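Please complete every field before forwarding. Incomplete forms are returned to the sender.

SECTION A: IDENTIFIERS
Entry label: holo-267
Bound molecule: S-adenosylmethionine
Molecule representation: SMILES string

SECTION B: INPUTS
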Amino acid sequence: MELLCPICGELLTKTDGALACPAGHSFDIARQGYVHLLPVQQKHSRNPGDTREQVLSRRSFLEGGYYAPICDALCQVGKSYCGPILDVGCGEGYYSSRLAAATGAELTGLDISKEAVRCAAARYKGHQWLCASAAHLPVKDKSVGILTSLFALTVPEEFARVLRPEGIFIQVLAAEDHLLGLKNIIYPELHHKEKFSAPELPGFVLEKTVPVRFTFTVEGQQVQNLLSMTPHVYRIGKAGAEALRNTPTLTDTASCVLNVYQPIHKE
Ligand SMILES: C[S@@+](CC[C@H](N)C(=O)[O-])C[C@H]1O[C@@H](n2cnc3c(N)ncnc32)[C@H](O)[C@@H]1O
Ligand SMILES: [Zn+2]
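SECTION C: PREDICTED COMPLEX
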């Protein structure tokens, strides 16, 4: 996939061990094979995004196969479209590497967490991994065939800019009844929050929604790994954390939606 300089927006080309633009901005390709394209002005903290601990918890959980039905649904839907793939908020690469294998398409994975892309690049060779921001994709206009965002950010204007006219955006969101078992353990009471399972996105039309719902059981450390993967890890209180530590086995229901959006043609 053709990449743009995150500083001046010119095309990047590969030189010895780096990507560089005509203005002389240069970005090293790390030993693990990823490129850091996140200038300081796009960082809102020193180490933005998921921490190494979260990344490793997610990898251990996902490789346990507990969320394989989500990955299978993604690959099934993705197979009807053509790449290249851009996975925004790719984490440690579990879903997008499998989507690339299922479709045979070229893959670029992007995450604001350096730890996440480092982990992805070390495990899944032969793809392009970038540390960059979803809000400023360092990607040429109209160059992406399948853009994915799983349990991650959606930035409609940027996504519309980089998608080919015939491209699609696959968004995976947690549904309202996702992980109710976990929530019942960690919160004293649950507040009902209306959630739009297929939000309207400026510049896109919704082609279809595929619900994915299944039950799974985790034990021991995987209970904690599951928590680390969710936004609840930031909200959990002392009592909730204690209750979860005393939960050796958890049977829960994963419930999410896979939304397929088409960019609206602009002449
Ligand atoms: C809940 S995780 C999902 C990871 C992966 N898609 C998965 O489902 O396994 C959200 C990811 O979004 C990344 N992220 C957060 N803010 C971001 C941003 N502004 N740009 C790119 N990635 C971001 C985090 O570092 C994290 O890896
Ligand atoms: Zn430049």
